[in-house]
Amino acid sequence: TQLLEQSPQFLSIQEGENLTVYCNSSSVFSSLQWYRQEPGEGPVLLVTVVTGGEVKKLKRLTFQFGDARKDSSLHITAAQPGDTGLYLCAGAHPNNDMRFGAGTRLTVKP
Amino acid sequence: DTAVSQTPKYLVTQMGNDKSIKCEQNLGHDTMYWYKQDSKKFLKIMFSYNNKELIINETVPNRFSPKSPDKAHLNLHINSLELGDSAVYFCASSQDSDRYYGYTFGSGTRLTVV
User: Fold this and answer.
1) In this complex, do B33 and A97 lie within 8 Å of one another by their Cβ atoms?
2) Which of A100, A104, B48, B95 has its CA 20 to 30 A from that of A47?
3) Shortest CB distance from B56 goes to which of A35, A48, A97?
4) A71-85 pLDDT, tens digit each
5) Cβ of B99 and A50 within 8 Å?
């Protein structure tokens, strides 16, 4: 059973479009992180959210943590081909490790 | 300077062999991890080490054994390799006292068992 469910699993859009991907769980997390992974590389941390309702912006990326700290969303404005990759969310597990969702594979076509 | 480095990048081996994957971090982090990423890209925790103590050991076959000679290294040794062990293995590290800064991952080792 996966602790974190990510949707959609796959997303293919044209350059310039906006998109939102989701990370949902029935568990409460003390913190939640988003990573991006490119082919042949390891995941790279984008952001950590800690407070319920928190919103963080990283250039064209906007991250939101749900009020109950069970879910999160990532919104990308005016997507570019360089945004292509696997987006992973990870929640802090009570055992003190991070548990990952299965990811959303984003393809941005020029 | 590579923060978390793994070797080898690719490993092709026959069933039944024993192999090791090495990992080193130069970040001064307290904790190191091994994750397995399957063909569907799902990352699953295998082990973590904090100050030479194994603090997490998921339901991983005992053919897999982590070995940490010091705080900067966490190697993964695999005995009697099976076809199902084929996957990408990632090493990661974190400053355990503050996971807010997240994990730093290596670039992965693609293991193929034939």
Assistant:
1) yes
2) B48
3) A97
4) 999 999 999 999 999
5) no
